[in-house]
Each structure stands twice: as structure tokens, then as C-alpha cells.
Amino acid sequence: MNKDTIIYIGNFELPDKDAAALRVLGNAKALTDKYNIVFISSSKTLNETYKYSVVNKFDNWVFKYPTSLLEWGKWLTSIQKYEKIFKEYDNVCGVIAYNYPAIALSKLRKYCKKNQLFLVSDATEWFEDKRIAKRIDTAIRMRFINKRVDGVICISSFLYNYYSRFTKTVTIPPLIDSKDSKWVNPDYKIVNNIIRFVYFGNPGKHKDKINLAIKTLTNYQKPFDFKVVGITREEYLNMYPEDVTRLSDNKESIVFLGKLDHIKALDIVKTSDFLLFFREDKRVNNAGFPTKLVESITLGVPVITNSTSDISQYITSNNNGYLIHKLDDFNISRIITVAHDNFDNNIKINVNRETFELNKFAPYLESFISSLKNEIKENKNEN
Asked: In total, how many domains does the chain have?
């Protein structure tokens, strides 16, 4: 018996160019026992309008990432070019739209309703973008259209609590397929009794407060190593020019590696003692969930961070990391000291690397999708 097909559409670059790709692949693998997943994605390096490929055994229709105003206009407002892909598959039962543009999502909703397909929003963020057009688009999607789709896959309890009053919801964090070879971690070794911290990602100035980590570490009196993956020293100083002396005085201890491909970034994490990052307690951070935390735990590397989003559900101090409940200089310094005093006791042995294993969450996601499919089926029978 052929499986029903779900179209998973959004601005993500498979297989591992961004956190969005990890998100959608995890969800797709969690559903693959019961459903055939087909991706419609984007690429910033594609020359032609679109092409077909296969990624991790999934059909993937890749469209060129918009660059001109005309292309952006069509991207944000039209689904016409995707409709013919929907028709390539005979047994499509629904669509999952990942953080999809508001107007296009509204049109997708109408298309799904007309063709008796369920429509699910995969909601993983609520950015407070300074660009007016982007801010309006996000507001319309989050405050209006997502409440009218058939269901929402929420990455956090914050979003679940927001949408559960209006539509069917399920909370699914970023998921990991631990059978993938990139999650294999080499044997842990202490090097010269120096604690090794790592940060990886794109912090921005208002997302991950990497400057707080650097301020604390540069005031620290014990040896440390801090590798920053994702930005260069110059990019950091463009955000925090006041730290030029701090970096110059600690150029052997704080090393910026710039943007690396995913595998190389994970290799740096594997040889670290702790992932280190901090986030302000505000909507943009509480609505999302840090993929870097998921990856670090899966690699067996404990995490030092503060309590935002659902982090406190997964990180317990003195167990699989250290959780700071108040983000200030005193508490950050205190936790760094505790971590340094205890890292040679190999806290890594307490890290449950299967915390975000997709098979643990698959039943919840499958049940959620099946309920929507059955609801559509019942409506068809009534008509």
C-alpha cells in the first residue's frame, strides 16, 4: 500500500546549510514510517529557476533563492509555481509550511481547502525584525494566519500556549537522527587541564549575547580556551567595538574561526568541554529553541546557558550542564567558576545523547498529523 504524501515547503537549504534544514529533516524522518515526505526548498547557489534532487532519500524540489525585488515579490505572494509540483504526486494528503510568508501562506490555505488537504504551519521563531516589510509579514503570519490553519507544529511551549487556544497544536523541539555518522563523538580527553568552551552559530547583536561570555572569560583568572564558530573577529568587533582591547589581550585564548561547514563546526564542538551561550529573556528567544543546544547535547557536550524558552526542561545544573537563572556578571562568573572546578570530573558522562532522538517524538508527531488527515477524510465523506 502506497503511503500518503506530505509536501514540506519553506525557505531552508538541505541537507545542513542552516538550522531550518536540521529542523525539517528531523520532522520528516520522524514521519517517514507512515508518510512520504516531499520537500520544496530553496538554494542561494542555484543558477537555474529550480531543479529536482534527492536528499536523504527524500524528493527535494529546489528553487532559486530570490535576489531581485520582482523575485522577492513573487516569493512572498505567489504559490503558482509550486502547484504543478503538488500535481506530480497522486496521493498528497497535506502540506507543512515552515515559517512561510504570510500572503503566500494565506493562498496556500485556500489551495489546501479547495483540494481537501490539511495545512500545518511549522512555527519555530517570532523575530522582531527591524525591516518594516519583514515585521509586518511576521505579524500577519503569527497573529492571524497561523490561527486559521489546520494545525501548528510548535518548537516551544511559548508558541504552544499561544496557538493551542485557536487550532490543533503539538510541541516538537529540533530532532536528531543519532544514526547519522556526524553525531559520533570521539573519546573525551582533557588537554593540559585547560577548560575548553565553544560557541557556534550566528549570534547577531540581539540574539546570543556572546559579549557577556567574552566579558566574563577575559576577567577570569584561570586558563581557558574559547573557540567561536560562525563569525570572524572583525564581524564581532563590528557589533562590539568596545571589546577590541579584550580580544587583543586574549588573542591566544579567544579564537574566531568564522563560518565553517556543518561537519567541521560539529568537529570543533566534539573536542570542547562546554557549549557556552546566553540569551536575553524576551519573546524572540522564548518563542524559538536553540538548535545549537540540541546538537551539543547529541554530541555529548554539556551546556552552560541561561533559562529561556524550554531550556530548563532539558538542562539541569551539575548534571548535563549549568543553568543560569539570572543573567548578570556575578551569576555568569559564578557558574563559569563552578564549571572550571568540576570539568575534570567529566560531567560529560551525565549527558543523555538521545535526549532529542527523533524516535522519542515520532509518535506525538505522527498522531498529530494522522488526526488532521482523518479530519479531512471525514469532511470528504460528509460532502
From this structure: 2
- CATH number for 194: 3.40.50.2000
Q: What is the residue type of 296? A: S
User: Are 271 and 370 members of one domain?
Assistant: no
Is residue 342 pLDDT above 70, yes or no? yes
What's the pTM? 0.94
Copy the grid coordinates of residue 381: 465523506
All cell numbers assigned to 139: 505579524
- Looking at residue 167, its pLDDT comes to 97
